[in-house]
Amino acid sequence: MGTRLRETASEVAALLWREHVVYRDRGGGVVIRGEHVQRWISMAPSGGRDEILLRAGRILDGGTTAPARTEALASLDAGTNELAATCRRLLAEVTTDTARPVPPPRRVRKRDRRIRKGRHTSLTSWVVIVGVIALVGLYAYNAVVARLR
Known about the structure:
Shape: elongated
Structural class: alpha+beta
Strand content: 15-25%
Oligomer: single chain
Helix content: 40-55%
Number of helices: 3
């Protein structure tokens, strides 16, 4: 199935994009990358016979791939044109997903920050400080007693 999957992916890639790269991924599937459109499609064997899992996602800045945004099951016997149509639908969903506006990050104004009043050091911090001082004192006491012997 691996050779057949690679051949089918090459045919689908030629229908989708003029510029593309087809390569095998670690899981035994095939990935089609369209760098010029910043999108990728993955074809991997599924649990069923002659059934493949199609996944689509974006290519981020720097060339890394974002996780898949959409996926669908298709039959490998369906034909190149039908697989290409399914891939186009997945790519359209990815494009629609990324076209949604992202809200800007909320900015914190200086006047909105909570101003602390009163003690700056909590009771727990004082207990730790006193404990460390006690350990240092105990070590010094043992050192002095050991020298006097």
